[in-house]
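Hello,

Our lab assistant flagged a job as stuck in the queue for most of the afternoon. It eventually completed. Since we weren't sure the result was trustworthy after the delay, we are filing this so someone can double-check. Below is the sequence as submitted and the structure that was eventually returned. Let us know if re-running is recommended.
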Amino acid sequence: MFTGPIGKQKNTSLMNEYASLLGDAILRHRARVAERSARVEAELASKVKSEFIANMSHELRTPLNAIIGFSKLMSEHNERRLSDADIADYGALIHDAADHLLAVINNILDISKIQSGKFSIDLRDIDVGEVLHVSAASLRLIAENAGVALRENIDRDLPSVLGDSVRLRQVFTNLISNALKFTTSGGTVTVSTAASGPFAIVSVNDTGVGMTEDEIAVALTPFGQVEASHNRWREGTGLGLPIARALVKLHGGDLKIESTKGVGTTVKVMLPIADMGRGESAA
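-- returned structure --
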């Protein structure tokens, strides 16, 4: 057994060699982990890209096919006489398809601007209850046609919020429209407001199909579709909720979803009250 300086040098040399080997092993392990992570991320990105292309193809081609088909029928009016009622119906269908197509394109442009940080809002003192009422009123006919009761419980004494009325109307219209889409005939969608500390709370509650936690995560992902089937009866690009949440965050607020499968969903939008928001900025 070595007990002198030579023994100590040998032990030190062995320890250094062991440390070097261990360090190399750790580096190789980290490299393998990083390589696997990069591969998984690349596969996920490819999958998301493929789903996005498939969804956009469906969402763009469906209204385009309607526009092309009905406009062709109208262009052949001299060869195949159409009644005035048919012409009016075809014109209305073309108009609806064009509106839907424009909405899809606008949503894509909005999410692109938001993600690039180039989206701006015009903050002013606004009556959030009035904006919510206008949004609900614009969808009342759709609710009636779907057999869904659209109710309002708006606090007229709610303090003003600091916001962009155009963008907040976009938020509320998206949320109410979503609630109506996923609520069957005989159900109810209720919009309400309340104050809570420094925030005004806007709630959109429905008695619709509801979502699981995993489905909520998908719904909040840009281009995510809770129903992935291309023959789904509910139209949508999967951009409504992500855009709504992004716009709310630009206002300094937050958007939260509470849902139970088969029971319904409540979406809460929290917006800073105007006077409190200015007070915090000044401080």
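-- support follow-up --
The delay was a queue issue, not a problem with the job. The result is valid. The mean pLDDT is 80. The beta strands are 124-126, 149-153, 161-163, 188-196, 199-206, 254-260, 264-272.
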